[in-house]
Each structure stands twice: as C-alpha cells, then as structure tokens.
Design brief:
Distance between the termini: 64 Å
Order of helices and strands: HHEHEEEE
Largest sheet: 5 strands, antiparallel
Structural class: alpha+beta
Radius of gyration: 32 Å
Number of helices: 3
Oligomer: single chain
Helix content: 25-40%
Strand content: 15-25%
Strand order of the largest sheet: 3-2-1-4-5
Length: about 150
Amino acid sequence: MQSTRMLAAVWLLLAMPPLSLAQSSLQLPSDEEDYRVLLEEQRSGPCERCGVVTGIRTQNREPARGRNPAAVPRGEMSGMGGSLTTTPIIGSGSSVRDARKAGAPLVSYVITVRYDDGSYAFIEQADEPVPRKGDRVQVIDGRVELRKD
C-alpha cells in the first residue's frame, strides 16, 4: 500500500509541469506606443518570408482575347444564296481607344527573392516594385515589401 502511494505521488509530480515553464503574466498594449513597441519586437524576430532581391525583370503577356461581338461565324447569317457578315466600318474615338488598350500587351514584373533559408521564389506583381536588386525584403500576401532592418 505504501509503495502504491509513493508511485502515485511520483507520477503526479512528473505529470505536473514545473513552475519554471509557466508563461509570465499576459500584457496587453494600453496605448498606441505600447502597440508600436510590440510590433517592432515582432518584426525584429526571425522572419520566415524575408530575403534579398536577386533580380527584377519585366514580362509582357498577350491580353486575354474576348469574343468580338461584331464577328459572326459564317453560316449563322445567310441571305439569298450567300453569307452575310457584318463589320463595323467607322468607330467612335472611345471604342477605337478601348480596342487599342485591349490589344496592348500586359506588363508585369517578376521579382526573384532569395530567402534567408536559401530557397528562391519568383513573385509576379502588376505594378512596378519599390525594392531594387540587393534590397532586403519581406513577402507579404504575394507582394514584395521593403524591410527597414
């Protein structure tokens, strides 16, 4: 009986976490300054998606072609013994300008980032990136942001 109590006491001591492993009291920010300090502490820690820009290049793509509403497939409109196809001859200024914009190639920027762990990533952005080659960056939501450390 004595050995069972002793065994239960040892098991209970081993099951309880030591007090030294308990967390300190939780501190919540009380004003904007406390919040800013906490954010700075968070940024200064290890960063999973941080690295250095090793290259930036532009990439031209053809825009997605939609169906031309003026173009009707042959055979859909047929007259007396022949086919009838409609083609706009005169366009207003805005429709011509819109057609030119639609036909212009889309430019995007591909940024090559070498992460701190040695891996590489290629991030594509539609707008011109602020960081340049050699700058320290962080990838946030698929975008390359300049780091201030």
